UniProtKB/TrEMBL annotation:
Residue ranges annotated for the HTH marR-type domain, each copy included: 17-148
Signal peptide: none
CDD domains from the UniProt entry: HTH_ARSR (cd00090)
InterPro entries cross-referenced by the UniProt entry: ArsR-like_HTH, HTH_MarR-typ, MarR/SlyA-like, WH-like_DNA-bd_sf, WH_DNA-bd_sf
Name by which UniProt lists this protein: MarR family transcriptional regulator
Originating organism: Sorangium atrum
Pfam families: MarR_2 (PF12802)
SMART domains hit by this protein: HTH_MARR (SM00347)
Amino acid sequence: MGRSLPLFFEENSEPIDRRIAVGLRKLGLAMKLQAWEQANHEGLSPTQGQILATLSLEGPLSGSELSQRLGVTLATISESVRALVDKGAVVKRPDPRHPRASLIELTPQGRALAQKVTTLPDAIVSAVGALSTLEQEAFLAGVVKIIRSLQLSGHIPVSRMCVTCKYFRPNAHEGALPHHCAFVDAPMAGRHLRIDCGEHEQAEEAQREDAWRRFVQPE
């Protein structure tokens, strides 16, 4: 039998946070490649596919709003929107909120294309489904915290998560359903947290900070 080296891996391993980051990078690359393949199959660029997917989820948006959602320049959005208009996938209409701005809206053809490019890869969904219920819940909580941290540092735009919503009430109850959604007036557990919710309305900064504090450090 070989010599026992109980501390070998303690002394010869990358920090766990770096290993997790490497794993997330691999998953992100797999998702990105799948999205590119889907968009390319439909004759779209990756950015055009993202625009269609975002409009499908959120409805008509201005160019500035798309730029903020996707984290790309307004010039890139404008160029992609022009191409989508030429393809008959979107139309530009006056924005009633800003007389000199336009809203980009999906056409019926654009909605059909959006449906094709927003489908999650079956392999990824199946892999996540192979995790136990407890593993899925812990993974979801970790993903929420990572996304929130990246938002606070300005590395990614704010997405429509429960933890940034004005209707979210973290740790408002005792027991298995500690959180509360004021929009539907119902309690919820950590496994019910949404990463992208259609009813999301962003809370004011002070409310977001207070909700996050109560979420990660329940009293």
